[in-house]
């Protein structure tokens, strides 16, 4: 069961990364060099899927709490961006910094959940950076944050130490809700 769990979470992240790269180059897919680039990225992602080992096999302490913190990180970043017109990067940096300082406010550093909060919130800040042109409603950001939180919990021990994991998870949450909203319309 654990092997299936690991393989599924790896496959989801690789597919999200391929979708992310494809979405970036969607406008110029008619150029051969772009197709080759996407193919190389896809091959490297699949290669890492097969070869990469886990550093840790433990599950997060309280999954539902981490899902909540991803969602809150997304919502607060989106609110600060819209209400104070700071821009998505400044809003994400502000919320991410506050989340990073959270463990220093609590003297009991043995509490495992306190150490897991900053990366969860920071993942949510990537969701909160969504353009108002794509998801201008709060329900969109909340649902995207919730789905990204689920993906975050599923991918906790996948690609440990690999850059781009949190952004890929956030992209997965936003893309899922965006596709869902297109289907519902």
What can be said about this structure in brief?
With 185 residues, this protein is mainly α. The protein has 2 domains: 2-51; 63-184, no CATH class. The chain contains 7 helices and no strands.
In angstroms, what is the radius of gyration? 17 Å
What are the segments in which pLDDT stays under 50 over at least 5 consecutive residues? 53-57
Instruction: Describe the largest sheet.
Output: none
Measured between the Cα atoms of the first and last residue, the distance is 37 Å
| Secondary structure category | mainly alpha
- Let me know the average pLDDT: 80
* Tally of individual helices: 7
Q: Can you write the helix and strand succession as a string?
A: HHHHHHH
Give the amount of beta strand, in percent.
Answer: under 5%
Structural shape: globular
User: In total, how many beta strands?
Assistant: 0
- How many independent structural domains? 2
Percent helix among the residues? over 70%
Transmembrane segments: 12-29, 35-52, 64-82, 88-106, 126-154, 166-184
Keywords: Membrane, Transmembrane, Transmembrane helix
